[in-house]
Amino acid sequence: MPLKMGVATVTMNRPPVNSLNTEHLETLHRTFIRLENEKCRGMILTSSSPTVFSAGLDIREMYKPELEKARKFWRTLQDMWLKLYSSPYPTVAAINGHAPAGGCLLSLSCEYRVIVPKVRMGLNETQLGIVAPQWFQDCMRNAIGEREAEKALIAGRMFSSEEALKVGLVDEIAQNKEECIQKAEAFLASQANLPMLARKTVKLGFRHQTLSRLLTGREADTKIFIDYIFQPKVQKGLEMYLQSLSKKAA
Ligand SMILES: CC/C=C\C/C=C\C/C=C\CC/C=C/CC(=O)SCCNC(=O)CCNC(=O)[C@H](O)C(C)(C)COP(=O)(O)OP(=O)(O)OC[C@H]1O[C@@H](n2cnc3c(N)ncnc32)[C@H](O)[C@@H]1OP(=O)(O)O
């Protein structure tokens, strides 16, 4: 996590696809706490993979899990997201590859998004027979508005880079990762002279409702997740999806 002029670049590096397991989520959570403690001036979130930003939650954490491990997994995801979404420093996602589901959530939790061409992003949960939790949905709604979010979430739509720009899911398209980082740095530079306290107060004002909804209902949210994924038909769906992903690799 290099810090240049107080700006940190956090590069996710969990090959092959930066899927988010408990350990990776803990690492991200610790990183966001550290950046806050070190009074970081801005953060760029990106990936070391040339083709994938993040494949979202690690499906193996949800397939035939032990109950306590599944609970810990979900609570760690909540912790990581609460820290990122409420960060006092400005945040940019440099989306240098595909960003389905939880990968899309990570980028939606940043304040500004730059994407490279020819990749896909979106909350595709419906297509997998699972449901994007309320706070995932809220993040999408906050980015693209009620009507477009409803359509996208019901269909589990994956947007191309160009479609993402058109609907407002991302702010800019860059030609490659290098330009993506340059544009991310330019956004952070544009924020640098704003009074930090006023800036973060306005940001939290906009995000307060979405944050409170999870903060006041964390246990209920965890229970919904557990009850949902332990259903036999959901487990069967996850099994088939995992098989289809590894067949593709074979
Ligand atoms: C109102 C609310 C009410 C109720 C809510 C109720 C309940 C909530 C319950 C559940 C919610 C759960 C939320 C989940 C959110 C998620 O994030 S689910 C994850 C969704 N992710 C995906 O669908 C992405 C799947 N992956 C891909 O599409 C491709 O892998 C990708 C385009 C990212 C990259 O393609 P490519 O480079 O070709 O790589 P491969 O497909 O060949 O994959 C390489 C290996 O990686 C494995 N893999 C891929 N993705 C995942 C993953 N997400 N988890 C685990 N493993 C993954 C893949 O199997 C390959 O492995 P192998 O090499 O075969 O061992």
TrEMBL record:
It comes from the Eukaryota. GO terms for cellular component: mitochondrial matrix. It catalyses: (3Z)-dodecenoyl-CoA = (2E)-dodecenoyl-CoA; (3Z)-octenoyl-CoA = (2E)-octenoyl-CoA; (2E)-tetradecenoyl-CoA = (3Z)-tetradecenoyl-CoA; (3Z)-decenoyl-CoA = (2E)-decenoyl-CoA. GO terms for molecular function: delta(3)-delta(2)-enoyl-CoA isomerase activity. CDD domains: crotonase-like (cd06558). Keywords: Acetylation, Fatty acid metabolism, Isomerase, Lipid metabolism, Mitochondrion, Transit peptide. Its main location: mitochondrion. It is found in: Mitochondrion matrix. It holds the Pfam family ECH_1. Pathway: Lipid metabolism; fatty acid beta-oxidation. SUPFAM superfamilies: ClpP/crotonase (SSF52096). GO terms for biological process: fatty acid beta-oxidation. Homotrimer. Key enzyme of fatty acid beta-oxidation. Able to isomerize both 3-cis (3Z) and 3-trans (3E) double bonds into the 2-trans (2E) form in a range of enoyl-CoA species, with a preference for (3Z)-enoyl-CoAs over (3E)-enoyl-CoAs. The catalytic efficiency of this enzyme is not affected by the fatty acyl chain length. This is Enoyl-CoA delta isomerase 1, mitochondrial. It comes from Apolygus lucorum (Small green plant bug).
